């Protein structure tokens, strides 16, 4: 998800800020997370700080596509890798606010979708961030009201929600619309399909009220809609080679990466260890993710939402760099982005070091790494 056309940037950001449920709860950019009830998150007595660094500030969304962050925190795997350097966390509702937090120094490292990562990189002329690892693939679906939409062709003329103007799912849906030969003005969302930008938190209520006929959304919102009677009409994974596409990356401030590479390496070790544990213990990991969601939001997901949502997400260390380029191309095609220069957006050096030490396969940057 390049140099965005300036008018779209101003209006897109303004639209996002205007949504009341995107209001940030506890600080300038994100909500400072409550202390977890798990003792695993505590700094072990007598442990040494990495490079003398007191804390590393980590951001993520309260979303199952950020399962690595949820589980790694709940199980104390980040803190274990960091030793005496304390992990502090902030929770975000939208990518733009997390990028602002990274740029301001309010966080150092974050789990985030591809669109805001691309936007943050290109708007800063390649100076603000690097993508340093992958986290998740998949977990995005087109869910519709089966009484109104029975086939893909029936989507024409209907009102379909996406989370935010220019976000990862919005770009994917606009690209799919174009592939059908239909026309939609990307900025207004008006055309052969009405694209209704709606915060994920209120999309299920909008569906129940009938104000939208469906939504192209990530998990667990997709499964929440199914629980309300919606039907999965299309899984976005089916549109990609090998059914894999990046939905969540790990980014870092270039300043923090330069000043504290050993801390960044430790966080990546925690991520790799977490992903290994998730894939080896899927049921326990699912429960851990749900437990952290409850800590962060005060509410856990019911089984009829959690179980199908969890199954549709693939946890991976691979940032799936080639799909990032494709997603950027989709945004250009939709008219939301100027042609981006993504050279240098990746620095997978530390991740590949950690993977090599763990005896796991290294990953590639599709030619977009730091030279």
TrEMBL record:
<dbReference type="InterPro" id="IPR010067">
    <property type="entry name" value="ABC_SsuA_sub-bd"/>
</dbReference>
<dbReference type="GO" id="GO:0042597">
    <property type="term" value="C:periplasmic space"/>
</dbReference>
<feature type="signal peptide">
    <location>
        <begin position="1"/>
        <end position="25"/>
    </location>
</feature>
<keyword id="KW-0732">Signal</keyword>
<comment type="similarity">
    <text>Belongs to the bacterial solute-binding protein SsuA/TauA family.</text>
</comment>
<dbReference type="InterPro" id="IPR044527">
    <property type="entry name" value="NrtA/CpmA_ABC-bd_dom"/>
</dbReference>
<keyword id="KW-0472">Membrane</keyword>
<dbReference type="GO" id="GO:0042626">
    <property type="term" value="F:ATPase-coupled transmembrane transporter activity"/>
</dbReference>
<keyword id="KW-0449">Lipoprotein</keyword>
<keyword id="KW-1003">Cell membrane</keyword>
<dbReference type="GO" id="GO:0005886">
    <property type="term" value="C:plasma membrane"/>
</dbReference>
<keyword id="KW-0997">Cell inner membrane</keyword>
<protein>
    <submittedName>
        <fullName>Lipoprotein</fullName>
    </submittedName>
</protein>
<dbReference type="Pfam" id="PF13379">
    <property type="entry name" value="NMT1_2"/>
</dbReference>
<keyword id="KW-0813">Transport</keyword>
């Amino acid at each position: 998800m390049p140099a965005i056309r300036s008018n779209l940037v101003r209006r897109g950001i303004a639209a996002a800020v205007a949504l009341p449920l995107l209001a940030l709860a506890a600080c300038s950019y994100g909500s400072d997370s409550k202390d977890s009830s798990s003792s695993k998150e505590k700094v072990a007595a007598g442990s040494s700080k990495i490079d003398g660094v007191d804390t590393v500030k980590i951001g993520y969304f309260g979303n199952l596509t950020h399962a690595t962050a949820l589980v790694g925190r709940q199980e104390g795997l980040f803190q274990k890798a960091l030793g005496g350097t304390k992990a502090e966390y902030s929770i975000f509702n939208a990518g733009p606010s997390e990028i602002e937090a990274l740029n301001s120094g309010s966080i150092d490292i974050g789990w985030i979708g591809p669109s805001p990562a691309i936007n943050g990189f290109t708007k800063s002329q390649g100076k603000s961030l690097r993508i340093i690892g992958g986290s998740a693939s998949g977990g995005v679906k087109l869910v519709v009201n089966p009484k109104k939409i029975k086939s893909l062709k029936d989507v024409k003329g209907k009102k379909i929600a996406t989370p935010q103007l220019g976000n990862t799912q919005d770009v994917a849906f606009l690209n799919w619309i174009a592939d059908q030969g239909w026309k939609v003005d990307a900025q207004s969302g008006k055309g052969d399909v009405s694209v209704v930008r709606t915060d994920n938190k209120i999309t299920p209520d909008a569906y129940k009220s009938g104000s939208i006929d469906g939504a192209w959304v990530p998990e667990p919102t997709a499964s929440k809609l199914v629980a309300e009677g919606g039907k999965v009409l299309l899984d976005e994974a089916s549109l990609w080679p090998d059914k894999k596409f990046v939905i969540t990356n790990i980014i870092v401030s270039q300043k923090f990466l330069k000043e504290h590479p050993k801390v960044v390496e430790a966080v990546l070790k925690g991520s790799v260890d977490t992903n290994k544990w998730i894939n080896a213990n899927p049921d326990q990991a699912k429960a851990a993710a749900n437990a952290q969601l409850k800590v962060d939001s005060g509410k856990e997901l019911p089984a009829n939402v959690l179980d199908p949502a969890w199954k549709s997400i693939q946890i991976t260390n691979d940032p799936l760099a080639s799909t990032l380029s494709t997603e950027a191309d989709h945004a250009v095609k939709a008219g939301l982005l100027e042609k981006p220069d993504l050279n240098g957006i990746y620095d997978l050096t530390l991740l590949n070091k950690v993977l090599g030490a763990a005896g796991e396969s290294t990953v590639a940057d599709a030619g977009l790494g730091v030279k």
